[in-house]
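User: Watch each token:
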Amino acid sequence: MNTLLLDRTTWDLLPDASGNMAVATGSYAICQNVASAIRVFAGECYYNTGIGLPYRQHILARTQAAPVFRLQAEQAASAVAGVAAARCVLTGLGANRQLSGAIVVSTTSGDVQHVGF
């Protein structure tokens, strides 16, 4: 599985050494796609408005139980091609109300990776 490589800080496209669009492959590509799936707001994707987490409707500025968010994140991650299983681990809620954690991803090739947020 291949996907366009994104900059980890800006989440923008990157060029390769030849000036072409850089491509991510293997487990890294799967993890990057999981991170993208978790970042997408429901209805945001123009060509597939059925994907994404309901940030506006149920998560941001709302009181939502942590188990519900974990389930939503796991479902979004599990829908990514190449993911055999996904488990969301929440590690904290900062003073600025920023939620942190990771998705533990098992790929269909047997790799286990952590995708932080």
Observations:
- Helices lie at 26-39, 55-59, 66-78.
- The CA atoms of residues 78 and 86 lie 6 Å apart.
